[in-house]
Amino acid sequence: MRPLIAGNWKMNGLGASLEEFERLKTLLDEAGPVDCNVLLCPPSTLLHRAATMCQETMIVLGGQDCHPEVSGAYTGDVSAEMLADAGATYVIVGHSERRADHAETDELVQRKAKAAIDAGLTPVICVGETEAERAEGRANQVVGAQVQNSLPAYEGQGIVVAYEPVWAIGTGKTATTEDIADMHAHIRGILVGMLGTQGEAARILYGGSVKPGNAGEILAVRNVDGALVGGASLVAEDFFSIIMAA
Ligand code: PGA
Question: Which residue blocks in the chain are alpha helix, DSSP H?
C-alpha cells in the first residue's frame, strides 16, 4: 500500500508560515517522484491559501477537526463541507487533544467521521491509549474499543485510522517497533472484522514523535501505512526527510 505521510500543524501557523509550503514544494520538485502520498493539515484559517498554493502539486490538504452537522447555529465551529469548500480532501477527527481538551467521545468522533464522508472528505480517525492504560495492560482493549466505536458505517470510500499513543505525542517518546507492530496488527484485525476487504485496504498511520531520525524504522513496520506527524511537520526540511523515509 502506498504510504500516506500526513502533517498536523495543530494551532500553529500564520500567513507567513506558508513559506514552509513553498519550501516543501521546492524540495519535492527537486526530488522528483516520491513513493508516498503527502497530506498537510494547517489551521483552517490557512487552508484556502494553502490550497491555492498547492494546486498542481502532489500535496493534498486536510482540516484538523469538523463539526458533525452540515451547518447551523454552532458559533465558532467548522463543518466538513466548509473544509471541502476551502480545498481540503481529508480531515482529522478524534485527535487525542480534542478527545482530552474538548471531552470528545467515540460517539461524537463517529458522527464527525460520518459528516466528513458525507462531504466527500476522507476522515483520519485517531485512536490511542494513555500511559496509565498501557501500564495497566489495557492498551489493546482501549484502542480496540475506540476503533469499534469511532468508525462510522460507510460504503465504498477510504478511511484512515491513526494510532497515536497519547504518551508519545509531543513528548519525544515513541512506542517500540514491537509495540507498534502488535497494535497495528490488532487494529488491522478489527478493521477486517468490521469492513472485510475494505478493512484490508484502509491505511493505518502511526503518530507520536515521528521525526526524521526514527521515521524509516517506524514506516518499515508491518501494517504501518504512513505517519501522522505533528511537531516535525512544521519545518519543511524535517517533513521532507520523513517523506523521503517512506
Ligand atoms: P507529534 O504530534 O509528532 O508532535 O508528537 C503527533 C500528533 O499529535 O498528531
Answer: 18-31, 44-54, 80-86, 96-101, 106-118, 131-135, 139-150, 177-195, 197-201, 212-219, 236-245
pLDDT digits over 52-73, tens only?
Answer: 999 989 999 999 999 999 999 9
**DSSP conformation class of 120:** T
Its pTM stands at 0.97
Q: Ligand 1 in contact with 170 (CB < 6 A)?
A: yes
Is the Cβ–Cβ distance between 132 and 167 less than 8 Å?
no
Contact predicate 184/221, CB 8 Å: yes
CA distance to 16, 63, 120, 200, 243, per residue, from 13 (Å):
8, 14, 26, 35, 21
95 is catalytic: yes
- Choose, from 67, 95, 184, 186, the residue flagged as catalytic: 95
**Grid cell digits, residue 146:** 475506540
